[in-house]
Request: fold
Amino acid sequence: MTFSIIGTGNIAWFFGNRLVAGRHRCTGVYSRNTAAARELAEALMADKYGQISDINDDEADVCILAVSDSALDEVATQLAFAKTMLVHTAGSVSLNIIEGAAADRAVLWPVYSILKHSMPDHRNIPCGWEASTKKAAQYVQEIGHGITDMLFEAKYEQRKWMHLSAVISNNFVNHLLGICEQICAENELPFSALTPIIEQTFDRIKHASPKLLQTGPAARHDEVTINAQKEILTAHPEWQRVYEAITASIQGTSAL
Reply:
Protein backbone atom coordinates (compact mmCIF):
# COMPACT_ATOMS: atom_id res chain seq x y z
CA MET A 1 0.00 0.00 0.00
CA THR A 2 1.16 3.56 -0.69
CA PHE A 3 0.57 6.45 1.69
CA SER A 4 1.31 10.14 2.10
CA ILE A 5 1.53 12.06 5.37
CA ILE A 6 0.42 15.53 6.37
CA GLY A 7 2.17 16.50 9.60
CA THR A 8 5.54 15.88 11.20
CA GLY A 9 4.73 15.28 14.87
CA ASN A 10 5.15 12.18 17.00
CA ILE A 11 2.31 10.23 15.36
CA ALA A 12 3.52 11.07 11.85
CA TRP A 13 6.96 9.70 12.68
CA PHE A 14 5.54 6.61 14.35
CA PHE A 15 3.03 5.71 11.64
CA GLY A 16 5.45 6.54 8.85
CA ASN A 17 8.33 4.46 10.17
CA ARG A 18 6.11 1.50 11.08
CA LEU A 19 4.47 1.42 7.66
CA VAL A 20 7.73 1.77 5.74
CA ALA A 21 9.23 -1.00 7.88
CA GLY A 22 6.21 -3.11 6.89
CA ARG A 23 7.02 -2.60 3.19
CA HIS A 24 4.42 0.09 2.55
CA ARG A 25 5.71 3.02 0.49
CA CYS A 26 5.47 6.69 1.41
CA THR A 27 4.89 8.95 -1.59
CA GLY A 28 5.46 12.23 0.21
CA VAL A 29 5.32 14.36 3.35
CA TYR A 30 3.80 17.80 3.80
CA SER A 31 4.14 20.27 6.65
CA ARG A 32 4.18 24.04 6.93
CA ASN A 33 7.51 23.47 8.68
CA THR A 34 9.57 22.67 5.60
CA ALA A 35 12.65 21.61 7.56
CA ALA A 36 10.61 19.13 9.58
CA ALA A 37 8.91 17.84 6.42
CA ARG A 38 12.29 17.33 4.77
CA GLU A 39 13.63 15.45 7.80
CA LEU A 40 10.67 13.06 7.92
CA ALA A 41 10.60 12.62 4.14
CA GLU A 42 14.27 11.65 4.13
CA ALA A 43 13.69 9.18 6.96
CA LEU A 44 10.85 7.58 4.98
CA MET A 45 12.71 7.73 1.63
CA ALA A 46 9.93 9.91 0.24
CA ASP A 47 9.45 13.27 -1.44
CA LYS A 48 8.66 16.50 0.36
CA TYR A 49 5.62 18.39 -0.86
CA GLY A 50 6.21 22.13 -1.23
CA GLN A 51 2.51 22.97 -0.95
CA ILE A 52 -0.47 21.03 0.31
CA SER A 53 -1.95 21.40 -3.17
CA ASP A 54 0.93 19.23 -4.46
CA ILE A 55 -0.76 16.19 -2.89
CA ASN A 56 -2.61 14.78 -5.89
CA ASP A 57 -5.69 12.58 -5.66
CA ASP A 58 -4.92 8.89 -6.36
CA GLU A 59 -1.17 9.48 -5.98
CA ALA A 60 -1.32 7.31 -2.86
CA ASP A 61 -3.85 4.80 -1.58
CA VAL A 62 -4.08 6.59 1.75
CA CYS A 63 -3.30 10.08 3.05
CA ILE A 64 -2.60 10.19 6.79
CA LEU A 65 -3.66 13.46 8.41
CA ALA A 66 -1.43 13.49 11.50
CA VAL A 67 -1.86 17.05 12.74
CA SER A 68 -3.07 18.52 16.03
CA ASP A 69 -6.77 18.22 16.85
CA SER A 70 -7.23 21.97 16.50
CA ALA A 71 -5.71 22.00 13.00
CA LEU A 72 -7.77 19.15 11.54
CA ASP A 73 -10.64 21.25 10.23
CA GLU A 74 -8.37 23.89 8.68
CA VAL A 75 -6.22 21.32 6.87
CA ALA A 76 -9.15 19.15 5.77
CA THR A 77 -10.83 22.08 4.00
CA GLN A 78 -7.79 22.26 1.70
CA LEU A 79 -8.17 18.65 0.52
CA ALA A 80 -10.53 17.09 -2.03
CA PHE A 81 -9.94 13.36 -2.60
CA ALA A 82 -12.22 11.27 -4.77
CA LYS A 83 -9.97 8.18 -4.82
CA THR A 84 -7.40 8.54 -2.03
CA MET A 85 -8.65 7.46 1.41
CA LEU A 86 -8.11 10.11 4.09
CA VAL A 87 -7.47 9.06 7.69
CA HIS A 88 -7.05 11.26 10.75
CA THR A 89 -5.42 10.07 13.97
CA ALA A 90 -7.27 11.97 16.71
CA GLY A 91 -9.02 9.98 19.43
CA SER A 92 -11.50 12.61 20.58
CA VAL A 93 -12.44 14.14 17.21
CA SER A 94 -15.35 12.96 15.05
CA LEU A 95 -14.81 11.38 11.65
CA ASN A 96 -17.22 14.02 10.33
CA ILE A 97 -14.58 16.73 10.64
CA ILE A 98 -13.01 15.49 7.37
CA GLU A 99 -16.35 14.74 5.71
CA GLY A 100 -15.90 17.18 2.83
CA ALA A 101 -12.27 16.27 2.17
CA ALA A 102 -12.59 12.71 0.83
CA ALA A 103 -15.13 10.19 -0.37
CA ASP A 104 -13.53 7.46 1.78
CA ARG A 105 -12.59 8.48 5.31
CA ALA A 106 -11.35 6.80 8.45
CA VAL A 107 -9.86 7.30 11.90
CA LEU A 108 -6.90 5.34 13.25
CA TRP A 109 -6.03 6.31 16.82
CA PRO A 110 -3.30 4.71 18.96
CA VAL A 111 -4.26 4.45 22.63
CA TYR A 112 -0.67 5.01 23.59
CA SER A 113 1.72 7.82 24.44
CA ILE A 114 3.99 8.23 21.42
CA LEU A 115 7.21 10.27 21.58
CA LYS A 116 9.53 10.74 18.62
CA HIS A 117 12.68 10.33 20.73
CA SER A 118 11.37 7.16 22.40
CA MET A 119 9.44 5.12 19.85
CA PRO A 120 8.00 1.78 21.06
CA ASP A 121 9.78 -1.26 19.64
CA HIS A 122 6.84 -3.64 20.20
CA ARG A 123 3.41 -4.15 18.63
CA ASN A 124 1.28 -4.10 21.80
CA ILE A 125 -0.19 -0.72 20.93
CA PRO A 126 -4.02 -0.71 20.92
CA CYS A 127 -5.43 1.24 17.99
CA GLY A 128 -9.08 2.14 17.55
CA TRP A 129 -10.48 2.59 14.05
CA GLU A 130 -13.64 3.89 12.40
CA ALA A 131 -14.49 4.10 8.72
CA SER A 132 -17.10 5.77 6.52
CA THR A 133 -17.18 3.14 3.72
CA LYS A 134 -16.27 -0.50 3.11
CA LYS A 135 -13.20 0.61 1.15
CA ALA A 136 -12.10 2.87 3.99
CA ALA A 137 -12.64 0.04 6.50
CA GLN A 138 -10.48 -2.29 4.41
CA TYR A 139 -7.70 0.26 3.97
CA VAL A 140 -7.61 1.49 7.56
CA GLN A 141 -7.42 -2.06 8.89
CA GLU A 142 -4.59 -2.85 6.48
CA ILE A 143 -2.70 0.19 7.76
CA GLY A 144 -3.58 -0.71 11.32
CA HIS A 145 -2.22 -4.23 11.00
CA GLY A 146 1.00 -2.70 9.71
CA ILE A 147 1.34 -0.84 13.00
CA THR A 148 -0.07 -3.06 15.74
CA ASP A 149 -1.40 -6.48 16.74
CA MET A 150 -4.14 -4.84 18.84
CA LEU A 151 -6.73 -3.36 16.50
CA PHE A 152 -10.37 -2.71 17.43
CA GLU A 153 -13.31 -0.82 15.97
CA ALA A 154 -14.41 2.22 17.97
CA LYS A 155 -17.10 4.70 16.97
CA TYR A 156 -16.78 8.37 17.89
CA GLU A 157 -18.85 8.16 21.09
CA GLN A 158 -16.77 5.18 22.23
CA ARG A 159 -13.49 6.88 21.35
CA LYS A 160 -14.41 9.94 23.41
CA TRP A 161 -14.78 7.78 26.51
CA MET A 162 -11.63 5.82 25.73
CA HIS A 163 -9.73 9.07 25.21
CA LEU A 164 -10.93 10.37 28.57
CA SER A 165 -9.86 7.10 30.20
CA ALA A 166 -6.46 7.37 28.52
CA VAL A 167 -6.02 10.93 29.79
CA ILE A 168 -6.82 9.88 33.35
CA SER A 169 -4.76 6.68 33.32
CA ASN A 170 -1.74 8.18 31.57
CA ASN A 171 -1.60 11.97 31.90
CA PHE A 172 -3.24 12.24 35.33
CA VAL A 173 -1.27 9.34 36.79
CA ASN A 174 1.97 10.79 35.42
CA HIS A 175 1.12 14.14 37.02
CA LEU A 176 0.50 12.45 40.37
CA LEU A 177 3.87 10.72 40.10
CA GLY A 178 5.43 14.10 39.38
CA ILE A 179 3.92 15.39 42.64
CA CYS A 180 5.39 12.40 44.46
CA GLU A 181 8.78 13.11 42.92
CA GLN A 182 8.66 16.71 44.17
CA ILE A 183 7.52 15.64 47.64
CA CYS A 184 10.48 13.27 47.85
CA ALA A 185 12.88 15.97 46.65
CA GLU A 186 11.58 18.51 49.17
CA ASN A 187 12.02 16.02 52.00
CA GLU A 188 15.40 14.61 50.88
CA LEU A 189 13.94 11.18 50.13
CA PRO A 190 14.79 8.93 47.16
CA PHE A 191 11.97 8.89 44.62
CA SER A 192 13.38 5.52 43.49
CA ALA A 193 12.07 4.04 46.76
CA LEU A 194 8.58 4.31 45.25
CA THR A 195 9.46 2.38 42.09
CA PRO A 196 8.62 -1.09 43.49
CA ILE A 197 5.16 -0.09 44.71
CA ILE A 198 4.47 1.75 41.43
CA GLU A 199 5.45 -1.36 39.48
CA GLN A 200 3.38 -3.52 41.83
CA THR A 201 0.32 -1.35 41.21
CA PHE A 202 0.48 -1.80 37.45
CA ASP A 203 1.41 -5.47 37.63
CA ARG A 204 -1.63 -6.24 39.81
CA ILE A 205 -4.19 -4.72 37.44
CA LYS A 206 -3.12 -7.18 34.75
CA HIS A 207 -4.90 -9.88 36.74
CA ALA A 208 -7.66 -8.17 38.73
CA SER A 209 -10.04 -5.21 38.74
CA PRO A 210 -8.47 -1.96 40.02
CA LYS A 211 -11.61 -1.40 42.10
CA LEU A 212 -11.10 -4.68 43.93
CA LEU A 213 -7.41 -3.91 44.49
CA GLN A 214 -7.97 -0.49 46.09
CA THR A 215 -6.22 -0.12 49.43
CA GLY A 216 -5.08 2.78 51.62
CA PRO A 217 -6.60 5.17 54.15
CA ALA A 218 -9.40 6.38 51.85
CA ALA A 219 -10.59 2.82 51.13
CA ARG A 220 -10.46 2.04 54.88
CA HIS A 221 -12.18 5.33 55.76
CA ASP A 222 -9.24 5.99 58.11
CA GLU A 223 -10.10 9.61 58.91
CA VAL A 224 -7.19 10.01 61.37
CA THR A 225 -4.60 9.28 58.67
CA ILE A 226 -6.52 11.22 56.02
CA ASN A 227 -6.68 14.35 58.18
CA ALA A 228 -3.01 14.05 59.09
CA GLN A 229 -1.99 13.79 55.44
CA LYS A 230 -4.21 16.70 54.46
CA GLU A 231 -2.55 18.74 57.22
CA ILE A 232 1.00 18.18 55.94
CA LEU A 233 -0.16 19.31 52.48
CA THR A 234 -1.16 22.74 53.79
CA ALA A 235 1.91 24.29 52.18
CA HIS A 236 0.73 22.96 48.81
CA PRO A 237 -2.98 23.82 48.65
CA GLU A 238 -3.30 22.65 45.03
CA TRP A 239 -2.01 19.20 45.99
CA GLN A 240 -4.26 19.25 49.04
CA ARG A 241 -7.29 19.80 46.79
CA VAL A 242 -6.23 16.91 44.56
CA TYR A 243 -5.80 14.69 47.63
CA GLU A 244 -9.25 15.63 48.94
CA ALA A 245 -10.96 15.08 45.58
CA ILE A 246 -9.40 11.67 44.97
CA THR A 247 -10.01 10.60 48.57
CA ALA A 248 -13.70 11.49 48.22
CA SER A 249 -13.89 9.60 44.93
CA ILE A 250 -12.29 6.48 46.41
CA GLN A 251 -14.62 6.59 49.40
CA GLY A 252 -17.59 6.87 47.05
CA THR A 253 -16.62 3.91 44.88
CA SER A 254 -14.35 1.64 46.93
CA ALA A 255 -15.30 -2.03 47.14
CA LEU A 256 -13.92 -2.33 50.69
In short: The longest strand covers residues 25-30.
